[in-house]
Amino acid sequence: MDIASFIESIPETFNVNYVGTAKLESAHDFIRDQGGEFIARFPCSISIGIVLPNAIVDLLPNQSDMGVRISYNHHAYNIVNQRLDLATSQIAGIIQDAGYLAYPIPASRAPRDERLCGLFSHKLAAHLSGLGWIGKSCLLVTPDHGPRVRWGTILTDAPLKPSRELLEDRCGDCTQCVDICPVHAFTGKHFIPEEPRGVRYRADVCDRYFQSMVDKGDVRVCGLCLYVCPYGRSNQKDEY
Ligand code: SF4
Ligand code: SF4
Asked: What is the pTM of this model?
């Protein structure tokens, strides 16, 4: 199998909006510290991304409405995660059949431990693939859909080349995600790879906010930082 042609065919074959490939060597220590040696042994990654439905994300400011909460949680979270998991599983199977190791990372759900992060950062792989930059919101921001994209990753030892140049941070003076957060989880600092996430984002504060919803028996929904980014807002594109 010609791997490069297969990667190119992924959006059409698996009904996803983004695909990108990266070499992970530059982030090896970070990846090992987060996920362990069994994750860090893979030299390359394939990122896939699905754009969230604007008709639902645009309603997030009205999230006190239970209908909005249920729609977002179902279609912009659970269903998109299932689509990503299905696609990464199928892609990993095809790469394995071609003679390489392929490890599909589960789509992001609840964090796995007290560090409030997953097994592997989908955003990091997508960033190293040149698909977007890490914004002040700590989300991966794409030029065309902002952070309104959910990501999946396949780690592999197939010999892949990076698909694009790294994208520069385009947040500039914008602070919309910082200002809208109801619990002030962001510090407003730009992403610098060498700095720990805590310099920009207090994940524990965001997590407690979500936990307070669970404690009340409510549906876990916020996403205002994702909604507000001008690079993704469907009603603000032309102004930015
Ligand atoms: S999801 Fe909500 S609470 Fe969490 S960081 Fe974003 S805006 Fe703040
Ligand atoms: S809302 Fe503004 S500061 Fe936040 S990620 Fe988007 S462009 Fe960057």
From this structure: 0.93
> Nearest to residue 48, comparing CAs of 149, 133, 168, 159?
149
Contacts of 40 (CB under 8 A, 6+ apart): 24, 28, 31, 32
Token pair of 233, please?
């807002």
pLDDT digits (tens, 9 = 90+) for 181-209: 999 999 999 999 889 889 999 999 999 99
Beta bridge partners of 126: none
- For a mutational test of ligand 1's pocket, the pick from 184, 222, 228, 229, i.e. the residue with the most ligand atoms closer than 8 A to its C-beta, is 222
φ, ψ of residue 169 to 5 degrees: the values are -60, 125
Q: Which ligand is nearest the CA of 183, by number?
A: 1
175: left (phi over 0), alpha (psi -120 to 50) or beta: alpha
**pLDDT tens readout for residues 156-173:** 999 999 999 999 999 999
167 lines ligand 1 (CB under 6 A): no
For residue 172, give the ligand nearest its CA: 2
Which has the closest alpha carbon to 124: 186, 193, 199?
A: 193
Q: Which two tokens stand for residue 86?
A: 């299905």
